[in-house]
Design a protein that fits this description.
hydrolase activity, single chain, globular, AB hydrolase-1 domain-containing protein, AB_hydrolase_fold, AB_hydrolase_1, eight-stranded mixed sheet
């Protein structure tokens, strides 16, 4: 090979090498840009939007009364039953997950005659971030119990009052028993949600109950417990299903639940009431209501309910736990164990009942009579 040919070959090799290096640099730059864009997209989708504003001048119009708390937030509420001034018993009701003060089993399944006979006044509140109650970005397991106490004081319910809660609202009643026991005349937990990480629950029992949940719920609960900052993204992305109750997956409801839900829908003949029940839960958006609810309910608790002591040593009050035997959302096996460990809990299991058994005919009467008699 001549010297000229060698020089041409060398120049060609250098040109090829330069092009390869240039292409490699461009590819690296493109990958870095793509990675940056992906990170920006992930950050945006993981950060929830701010809640919708309530009240005048430019917020969502308010339709029910509210009290102002010490920290400036407001709690919305709805009253019914006998007049507060003549009531023998005063009860605060705490609603369930993805619901509002309009989803109250006593309002549907307790008869006016029984309310009159027992002399009971009931006030149902919107939990923070739900309905027309302001969000609480600093909300903890303890804070809602203190909100309930402040609501009772603002409404002049007296030194003692009853509390009742359904599902995720039932879980809140454990907080009331822990943090404001001296204010309680009695308590009812109806199908209360369970935190699988309460340390006193045997792992064999929680593993068995956990495995019976839908796969999508197992993952959703894990995210809420271990990665709460991802809860919003997890339940709003479209790649795989989020929490079944949010997705309204009918599989989680038992045949008894479907019957109760159908009757409930047919019983709500007032179009305005039906609209409120449909729109109020997520009125301010999803994060401060249902997603924060999951983070608190399935997150790291400051106490275990099975460490609680009987707040009514002098038999001046009772605590009742009601469950449906066929509940597919909250495992009855765990509730039986909790009630057994806490011997002072009066446990009631409705044979064949589902998660929504409390809305069935006469169940409200039965629950109130057991508590107040």
């Amino acid at each position: 090979m001549s010297d000229g040919s060698k020089k041409n070959l060398s120049a060609t090799s250098r040109t090829r090498q330069y092009r390869l290096e240039s292409s490699s640099r461009v590819l690296k730059i493109l990958l870095l840009v793509l990675f940056g864009e992906l990170c920006a997209w992930a950050y945006k989708t993981a950060i929830p939007p701010p809640p919708r504003k309530l009240g005048s001048p430019d917020g969502i119009p308010l339709t029910s009364p509210r009290i102002k708390l010490r920290d400036g937030r407001h709690l919305s509420y709805k009253e019914y039953g006998v007049s507060k001034d003549i009531a023998k018993s005063k009860l605060i009701y705490v609603h369930c997950f993805d619901c509002s003060k309009y989803h109250d089993p006593f309002a549907f399944s307790a008869s006016p005659a029984v309310l009159e006979e027992l002399g009971v006044y009931i006030v149902a509140l919107d939990r923070p971030g739900y309905g027309e109650s302001d969000p609480d970005p600093k909300r903890t397991v303890k804070s809602l119990a203190l909100d309930i106490e402040e609501l009772a004081d603002e409404l002049n319910l007296g030194q003692k009052f009853y509390v009742a809660g359904f599902s995720m609202g039932g879980e809140v009643i454990w907080s009331c028993l822990k943090y404001i026991p001296n204010r309680l005349a009695g308590a009812v937990l109806i199908s209360p949600a369970v935190n699988y990480w309460w340390h006193n629950l045997p792992s064999s029992l929680t593993n068995e109950a956990y495995s019976r949940q839908l796969q999508q719920d197992q993952w959703s609960v894990r995210v809420a417990h271990y990665l709460p900052w991802l809860t919003y993204w997890w339940n709003t992305q479209s790649w795989f299903p989020g929490f079944s109750v949010i997705m309204q997956n009918p599989v989680v409801f038992s045949p008894a639940d479907i019957i109760v839900a159908t009757k409930l829908q047919n019983a709500t003949t007032d179009p305005h009431q039906a609209e409120l029940m449909q729109t109020q839960p997520r009125l301010q958006g999803e994060f401060e209501s249902i997603h924060r609810d999951m983070n608190i309910g399935f997150g790291k608790w400051e106490f275990d309910p099975m460490d609680l002591e009987n707040p009514f040593h002098n038999s001046n009050g009772t605590v009742h736990l009601w469950m449906g035997g066929e509940d597919r959302i909250v495992p009855a096996t765990l509730q039986r164990y909790i009630a057994h460990q806490l011997g002072w809990i009066k446990y009631h299991e409705v044979v064949g009942g589902g998660h929504m058994f409390a809305f069935a005919d006469e169940m409200g009467d039965n629950i109130l009579k057991a508590l107040l008699n």
